[in-house]
Design brief:
mainly alpha; single chain; 74% helix
Length: 77
């Protein structure tokens, strides 16, 4: 493996992690909002909007890796 592989793999895994974090946040905010504590309706909406932005950014990153940097084959070695 070369340095390009490691860099692209790290970028891909970071974007996948951000996507998972965003999806988890949205799941919690939309199904368990009562257990979050001292959130106002406005605060919940702001947090949901931030999670949605994170999800969109992560998906964009993954799409760009796959489209321009041959990311589809990164994990195969």
């Amino acid at each position: 493996m070369n340095i390009k592989h490691y860099i692209l793999q790290a970028l891909q895994k970071k974007a996948e992690s951000e996507k998972a974090q965003a999806l988890a946040s949205l799941e919690i905010l939309t199904t368990k909002a009562a257990g979050i504590g001292e959130h106002t309706t406005e605060g919940l909406f702001e947090d949901a909007e931030k999670a949605l932005e994170m999800l969109a950014n992560a998906d964009d990153k993954l799409e760009m890796i796959n489209k321009y940097l041959n990311g589809k084959d990164l994990l195969r070695g």
